[in-house]
Amino acid sequence: FATATRVHNNNDxxxxxxxxxxxxxxSTTSAGPAPPLSQDDSASGLxxxxxxxxxxxxxxxxxxxxxxxxxARILRHLKAAVDKERAAEGKSFEKHWLILVQAELATRAxxxxxxxxxxxxxxxxxxxxxLSEAMFFDEKRKSDxxxxxxxxxxxxxxxxxxxxxxxxxxxxxxxxxxxxxxxTRLRICEKNTGRKKYAFNVIQRKFLPAxxxxxxxxxxxxxSSVINRDxx
Length: 232
Prior knowledge:
The chain has about 230 residues and is mainly alpha-helical. Helix content is about 50%, strand content about 0%.
């Protein structure tokens, strides 16, 4: 089925995954009504509304496909991430990037399809795509090694979700960095801009959540980032 999540992040205007309109909303518990938008918080307010609506659609599919109990189990971490975002209303500078990770894990657990993209499809998309690849590798490696816990179970402790979202900083983050520096994502940047560099400069990089920070070797210096600014 087409993935039923539509996820937005403050770092990206267009990171979304389309809804499956054929799913009938369930009568079971949901994330609740989305909070109203306020004039001084319209961007993050819209993000909360879209994420809450998308969760309800995904929950509808999970319940129909797997039943109430199993559907709730599969979506428990995504629900916690969405609820945490909703509880942070008014904190417009807080980035709830964990929703992106949990939406991917939940979609794969439901045998759904994934689509990752941003406005230009190269920089922010590249950061999430490479993190996803590194997480997928670690999850399969753990499964092959008969580990008792996989990536999703590492997130059982809500207080540790941010640190554990990519499974293991000592393994997953460096693996994602290798993919960012030596993988195919730089070829996409080159085809778009003629440069094998991500569009971030050192200042912009600091504002990215840690799991989405590219290696210093493949970002623009301050001067070049202005001269070769990507306006796509």
